[in-house]
Model the fold of this input.
Amino acid sequence: MSNRSWPVAFGVAVLATLAGAVGFGIAFLSRSARKPLKRVGEEQLRRNAEIEEGTQRQRFEVTLASIGVGVIAADADGNVSFMNAAAEALIRSKREEVLGRHLETVFEILDEDTRKPVENPALQALQGSGIVALTDHILLIAMDGTEIPIDVTGSVIKDSEGNARGVVLIFRDITERRRLERERTESLGVTRQLATIVESSDEAILSKDTDLHITSWNRAAERMFGYKASEAIGQSVLFIIPENRLSEDQSMMYRIQQSRKAERFESERRRRDGTVFPVSLTISPILDANDTVVGVSTIMRDISERKRIEDERQVFMAFFENSPDFIGIVDPNWKPVYLNPGGLKMVGFPLDHPVKDTETSEYLTPDQRAFLTDVIVPSVREQGRWQGETYVRHWQTEQPIPVSSHTFTVRHPKSGHLLGIGIIARDISEVKRAQNQLHESEERLERALRGGASARGTGTSKQVRSYSIQGGRKCVAFPSTRSGLT
Done:
């Protein structure tokens, strides 16, 4: 028998027993009222019988009035002859208002699912001379229209000769039982849903008691550690914890028992093959009905990939932070979000300057800002990069700083979504200064050579073989002579 059906069966048995007892009592009263006197004229015996009958009736009525179920009795024609206080409360009517009325006008019931009328079980019992119990989805429609879920049993009242003398209805309000059943059903549904979620989760989920013995182990835990649930459940959780981390779980269990609050931290665990790997843990208390911690639930995530990315990021950040070049990042709308210390120093900012409060165009000299919007931005948008020379400005001195700049898009490696734009610029002031000095030296040499040629006449000018521009620089070529320069 299922958990749900045994209370119903028990209730039916109780109602049937009550119906039999009530029927017997009413039949007894009815019989005592009609019992003929064997000895006509024996007045005292008649009086004694009447006293006994009154006592029995009073005792019976007091008993029926005190029980917590509704009782309605009717004669063989179905007219109500008795109703107790519990029945009055359920049908929302006083006994005086229903006595003598037909049972069908007093006790109306419907099928809860179909909303169709259900035949009165007492009248059914009268036709079949037995007990009729209705316990599934029955609604009592009270006199004021209130609908009340009930269990109801109808039974025939018989006299000592087995003749039907009437019927009795025994019924009770099962609203509270229905509520508990509904809550239990909902709770079971939620439990099944949670179990499904736990089993289908990509994160390892396990539970353990206060002695650290594993009590549940989902499929993700099987995949993560290499142990089947049948192998892990019952074992101490310490078998998946490296030796240098053993004290963590014991300390954690003590803290949770004291605080009853979840804890989150990072640690390490060990697979079946001995591999130790980093994990993030969320550990929550499991409480019983008395609010006592009886165990914990652990959600575990392998963070090996995250740690690898973090390590790589640290390498890159160390490179950025120590590079003397200007290394900046702007968002897809060209709003600055990062500038390395070398870049801050190049433009004259303190290391704690709020870069996010600046605009990209402000880093360029005024005469280069149109070049940003007209050349650099379109090139990056259309080709994904721009490379060339430009000028940034020093925010303190307003001096232009020549730079060789490489601007490029940064996209998500899988989706290709634009994450931002990277800018790497190198100060080429020294290169420009050297180029200018070389240019000035070449010009001075050219003037000196031309002046010397004019002083010696036209013949000397033939000694200068050529004068050309190669690679952007002025060059002078001389013929070789045996005697050399004099």
The domain at 201-302 is CATH 3.30.450.20 (Beta-Lactamase). The chain has four domains: 5-180, 201-302, 323-427, 433-477. Residues 5-34 form the longest helix (30 residues). The chain has 15 helices and 18 strands.
